[in-house]
Fold this sequence. Notes:
7-stranded antiparallel sheet; His_kinase_dom; alpha+beta; Beta-Lactamase; 17 helices; single chain; 5 domains
Amino acid sequence: MPQQPVRTSLARRALTRMGLRIAAVIVLITLAAYWHFYHSLEETIDEGLRNYVQARADGESEHFLLAETQTRMLADEMVRRLKQAGDEDYSARFDALFAPGKDGVIRMRPEVSDYRHKATVFIRNDVPLTPDFKRRIVVGWDLLTAWGPLTTNRFLDSFMNMPEQMSLNYAPFVDWSLSATPKTNIYEYETVWRSTPQSNPLRAPFWTTVYFDDGARKWMVSHVTPADLNGRWVATAGQDIVIDDLVRRTANDHLTGTYNLIVRADGQLIAHPRLSREIQLAGGNLDVSHLHDAQLETIVHTALKVGDMADVVETPDEAFHLGVGRIHGPDWRLIVVYPSSHIAAVARASARYVLILGAISLLLELLILWSVLKKLVSEPLHELVEAEARVGDGNYDVLLASAHRPDELGRLAHGFELMARRVGERDRQLVQAAGELAREAETARINAARLAALSQILPDPVFVVAADSRVCDAFGNTSRLFEGNPTGHSIFHTMPPSVVDGGRMALDIAVQSGLAQRMVYDAELTEGVRWFEALILPLPPQDTEGPQVLWLVRDITALKLTEGELRDARDHLQDIVAAQTADLRGARDRANDANRAKTQFVSNISHELRTPMHAILSFARIGLDKVESARPDKLKRYFENIIMSGERLLGMVNDLLDIAKLESGKMDYHLAQHRLGRIVDGVASELEALATRKQVTLARQIVSDDELDCDATRVAQVLRNLISNAIRFSPDAGVITITVWHEEPMLVVTVENDGPPIASEDLERIFEKFVQGSGLNPPGSSGLGLAICREIVEAHGGQISAANREGSGAVFRFTLPRRQPVLPGGDLFGGGAG
C-alpha cells in the first residue's frame, strides 16, 4: 500500500509558534533593559555630578573665604590698635608721612612714598584734620604697611576707608592715590556707602556686586568688613578679588557634553560660556530675564531652589540634569548643565546592543530548537513511518530506538513493537537475545577501553587496597612508587618506615568507620626528597571481596615549597613594615622638634625686634621732649642711639627677608668672575672699626691665585656674618685670622678666633634655621645668620662647617668652587634669578 505524502511538518509548525513567542519575550526584555539602563545610568551620573560639583564649588570657595577671614582680621586689628593708642597725639607722625600736593589732595610725602612696599593714602583737601582723624590715618597706614604683604599674597590689594573722604590702599602694582582728585567722592563706591550705619545698621560684613576696575583692567568683587569703636564707625577694611580666572575656568573647564555657569542668589548671571559679552555689557551682573531665553531662565530658577548642600535636580521639562553647588562667601551658585539626551542616547545604545544580542540568541535558539525537534519528534515519527512500511512488507523484526524513551512517542513505539512481536514472537525472541548479548559485549568493551584510557591520563597513582594493605588494582602513573605491576604488593611499600604505623592506623579507621582519612609525609625518591599527600576513601562493600578503600597519592612538593616561600615573604614583609614604622616615627619626631624650634625662634625674634624698636621710640621721645633745652652733644648722642638701634633692627629684618627668600626659592644670584681676596679685604675694612673698639686684630692670609665665579654680594654677606661673629666672641686684644687657600677645584676660607669654644651639641645645629645655639646669638641678633650663610654657600656648590680649636677659640670653614657650569648661551649657570 503506497504511503501518502506528509503535507505539513509537525516540527516546522512547533518551530514557528515558539519562535514568535520567543521574539515577543526578547522585545519585552529589551524594553525592560532600556528602562533599567536609563534609570541606573541616571542615578550613576547624578551621583558623579553631585560629587564633582561639590568638589568644584568647595575649591572655588577657598579664595573667597580667605578674603572674609583677612578683612575681619584687618578690622579687628584696626580697632585693637586704636584702643591701644588711646588719646595719643599722632600729629608729628602724620606730618612726617603725609603732605598736600599741588592740587590740595593729601598724599604720601615723596621721600617716604613706596607703593610697592608700603600703603598709599588719599585724603581730600576739604577733610578736617582733627587729632582723632590723624590718629586713625597713621594707625591704619601702619597696619596696612605691616600686613599688606601678607593679605595681598593671593589677592590684588587691601584697602581701608573711613567716614571722611579718604582711602588707604596697599597695592604693590600701582599707586592708587595718584588717580584721586579734589572732586573724588568715595561714597560713590559700593564698598563705602554700604558700610555706613544707615545702609548697614547691623554692621555686618558684605560682598559687593561684580564690577570692572578701570585701573586694573579686570573684573572684580570686593569683601568689606566695617570696624566700629565704642559704637562709632571708624574705618572699613576690604579686599578686591579678581574673578577673571574663575570666569575662564567656568567657561573652559567642564565635563564632556556639559557646560557651566555661575549665578548670584538673586538670579543675576555672573559667568556663562556663550554670554561673556552680554555679561560684560551688563556690568558683570546680567539679569537672565532680559535675555528672553526661556530655557536659561528655567535652568537658573530650578538651580536656585537647591539648598546649601550640593545636589542634582532635573528641570521641569526633564531636558537637563543640573549639578548645583554653593560657592561660599559671595553665595553664588555653580551650575553644571548635563543634557538628559546624553543619558537617553547611552541607554538606547545599550538597549540596541541587548536587542541585537536577543536577535542573535533567537536565531541560535531556533537552530537548537530545530535540532531538538528533529531528534525528538521528526526522527522518531519518521522511524515509525518506516517501521510501518517494513511490517506491511512482512518484516516483523522491528527495533525502534524511540521505544525506550519515557514520553508519549516512546510509548507509541513500544506499542508498535508489541504489535509486531505478537505476529512473529519466536523469531523476535531469538533476534532480541542475540542483540542483547551483542550490546552487553560492546558495553563491556567500551568500559574496559575507558578504564584503560583513564589510567593512562591520570597524573597521580590511584590504588584499590584491601583491608590487609594489599593492592588489588592500580591506575594512573604508578611507576614513581612501584617498579613493575603493584598488584599484590602492600601499599606501605610506597611509604617510608617512619610513617607506616600511621598509614596502618588510617587504613583501619577508614575500613571500620567508613570515614575518609588524609596523610602528609615526605619520601626519598631517585630525584630527591618529595612530599606526598595520601587520601584514603572507603569503597562500597562487594559480595565477592572483603572491604576495600581507594588510595590516592598526590605529589605536593611544589605546594610545600610555595608555603615556605609565602612564610619567608610574610616574615620579610613584617620586617619591612617594622622598619618603615620606625622611619615614620623618626620623621614625626623630627617634624615635632622642628616645629618646636620654629615656635621658640618666633618668640625669641619677637623679643629681639621689640628691643631696638623700644630703644628707637624711647630716644626719639626723649629727643622730642628735650629738643629745645638739651645741648647739641646730647641730641647727637640720642640720634646716634636711634641710628644704632635702627641698624640693628634693619639687620634682623634683612635676615628675615633673606631666609624667606631662601625658603621660597626666590633668592637672586648674579654670578661673575671675582677675586676672593678683594671681597675679603672689603669686608675686613668695613668691620675694622668694630674690631678696633675691642682692640681685636684682623689678620689675613690669602693666596695670589684667588679668582672664582660667584655672587660677590652674597659671598661678602657670608664673610661679614662670620667675621662679625668672631669679633663679638673674641676677647679684648684678641686675633682673628682669615685664611684663603686652594683645595682644587675649590677655594677654602677659614675664619678663626681665640674666644670661647662652641658647645659640642651646637656644632651642627647652629647652621639650622630657627635653631639658636647656646650663647651663640648675642642680643640684637636674629639667629638666622649662620643658616643664611649655609644656604648661600650650598647654592654656590660649596659646604660650610664649624669646629673648635685646640685650647680655645673656634674656626668656621667654607668652600667655594672656582668655576660654575656654563649654559649653552655662554652665561654662567645661575646668572639669573635663583
